[in-house]
Amino acid sequence: MNENTEFAAEQSEAAEKLSEALSGGRFVLFRQRIEPLVTGTQEPAFQELLIRFLDEDERRLHPGQFFLTLERCGLMFTLDRWIVSAVINWLADRQRSVNREDVPCCSVNLSAESIAKSELLRFVRERLLAGGILPGRIVFEIAETDGAMYAIRLEQLISQLAPLGCRFALAGYNGKHVTPALLQALGFEFAKIDGAIVQNLHRDPMSFAIAREIAQSCRDNGIRTIAQFVELPETVQILRDLRVDYAQGYGIAVPEPLD
Questions:
Q1: pLDDT in tens, 12-33
Q2: Domain locations along the chain
Q3: Which of 16, 137, 208, 229 is 20 to 30 A from 235 (CA-CA)?
Q4: What pLDDT, in 10s, does the model give residues 21-69?
Q5: pTM value?
Q6: Are the CB atoms for 248 and 237 separated by under 8 Å?
Q7: Which fold does the domain 3-194 belong to in CATH?
């Protein structure tokens, strides 16, 4: 067996295990709080939903350890559908058990594979209508590189899901591929400032300047900003000074099981 054949066999085996895991309860959702930095916000609690996979030894694997296999095998849309369904079911249960104002806003990542598929719109619409989710409780996150590549597709997606109460965020935003004006035109409500910029705010003048420009430009275009990978108290103060709207990271809250 040559190397290519052996690699293909390994990928096929891994894909089969991950497919079985989707129906066998081995994928689990975690949540990480997104903290408002602006006082007096009327928004509900905000959290990002993160996917984790339990291997045979019940160890939680980081997404970086299984996403590549899912992408190579064309299974990201399958995973995204599972996540969307799980989140909508969780929100529907939450709505039945607490006051409306205590139902949080959940941010969910969408892969490039899902964005490109025409079935995504129909699937999300059907699940939202079946779940009866309160407006504004689901934010779909799109990577900045995917936002630039699929701008036309995203415009169609946002224009049809926004009336159903969905909101959209561009993640890993550094301003290189998409302008805040385009974000506004496409219908994005949030821009998540790239963690590489945020982590260097307190020690790198260039990162500080980029973050300041992003915060100001987004504010001018009605886009709210979320700083990713916030780890230090001094970073939080800098973000407040820059009038960034939200912060997320291990310095704010560690991920915890959704249930």
A1: 666 676 667 666 667 889 999 9
A2: 3-194
A3: 137
A4: 666 667 889 999 999 998 777 788 999 999 887 766 656 666 766 777 7
A5: 0.90
A6: no
A7: TIM Barrel (3.20.20)
